[in-house]
């Protein structure tokens, strides 16, 4: 390879290297872009920012580490247009550069060994240029392969469970990768030094570092990975505690509903018992011709009886109270409420379990309808038995955009607040699984549908 060819190769190599690292950077960020519309354009924006400032920093020969700071600042500035949270941008950038430096230190040891294994020709000059070109090409290929694998592992770990990136969590997650980046910056200055015109290499002066350095780099990478895993575990634990607390609250609420139902039907039985006396009084007033008093008496009876009115009869006292309570709330909020719910035969299903399902689905439906313009609000409840199966379906209008997460539950974004509670739906799914059933969520334009299919059990 001639000197001119080597210069062309060197310039081309720099561009190819930047394109490679920009591609890996974009691939690492791409799954976390929340804006589903124009997602490719958002990814292209991230790629363009990296390339633009990467090439600019190389041309300006800025101090080592400046590129990472500039890139982070620019990505934070365009995070809104890129569909990324600022805290997530900061964390992903740290993880990217920590993995890049860690993989670079590992490959550097391999590069040093290969450099010693390949014969070093003193002449002709073309052979020297060719050897250098081969070595740097091998370095780039091996580094890109290892770097891509490390980023892929980190990305898979991050995608397993979303971590709420509040200030405290962000500090915990940033500590190890930041330390790894600083360690890499210091070591990179020590790898090659010039002293009195003599080239000094760290691995030549201290051969032991040839094995120690990759291990240290791997430890910084593993530390970042394990910190993410630990924080995800903590987030899962907090979520589980919140779920159990919500379950406890819902259980207490259902029990209160059962007590209300028991009191309600006790009062009805008492009223039936007292009805004979009321009829006797009515007959007495009619015989005596006291029609004015008779009208007042009947009006008072009608007023007291209206307190016992349940507009919707479902066939079970627990579901009667829940459905009628939601109906009254819906009327107060100008929500059209339709019900075609018929409780299955006693013994096939536990009323307590059905009550939890109805309470969660209808509560979510009411909260979703509150965000909808008046006149467009509606809730439709259906509950029918088909053979050995019982189908419960709740449909309602909603505003915004419903995005289904990995577990199949709706998630919210900052721009569109969709009032669907993941914990409540998780409880519904858990109740359905007791009966070897399932929960299905669907959207059709402005209509949200939650369908629960339960299978009859022989014994409870």
Strand content: 5-15%
The tally of beta strands, per DSSP, is 9
Radius of gyration: 35 Å
Widest sheet: strand ordering: 3-4-5-9-8
The arrangement of helices and strands along the chain is HHHHHHHEEHHHHEHEEEEHEE
From the spread of the alpha carbons, the general shape counts as elongated
Q: Into which percent range does the helicity of residues fall?
A: 55-70%
Structural class: alpha+beta
Number of helices: 13
Mean pLDDT: 80
Biggest beta-sheet profile? 5 strands, mixed
The low-pLDDT segments are 413-421
Distance between the termini: 82 Å
Overall description:
This protein is α+β, with helices and mostly antiparallel strands and 460 residues long. It contains 13 helices and 9 strands. A 5-stranded mixed β-sheet has the order 3-4-5-9-8, covered by helices on one side. β6 and β7 form a beta hairpin. It is elongated, with a radius of gyration of 35 Å. The chain starts with a helix and ends in a 5-residue tail after the last strand.
Brief overview, please?
With 460 residues, this protein is of the alpha+beta class. It is 67% helix and 11% strand. The protein is built from 13 helices and nine strands.
Could you name the key traits of this structure?
five-stranded mixed sheet, 13 helices, 460 residues, 67% helix, 9 strands, alpha+beta, two-stranded antiparallel sheet
Itemize the secondary structure elements and their pairings.
Layout: H1 3-29, H2 39-60, H3 66-77, H4 79-82, H5 86-117, H6 125-160, H7 167-191, E1 192-195, E2 198-201, H8 202-205, H9 209-288, H10 291-306, H11 317-332, E3 336-341, H12 351-369, E4 378-386, E5 389-397, E6 403-404, E7 410-411, H13 422-434, E8 438-444, E9 447-455
Parallel strand pairs: 3-4
Antiparallel strand pairs: 1-2, 4-5, 5-9, 6-7, 8-9
Helix pairs in contact: 1-2, 1-6, 2-3, 3-5, 5-6, 5-7, 5-9, 6-9, 7-9, 9-10, 9-11, 9-12, 9-13, 11-12, 12-13
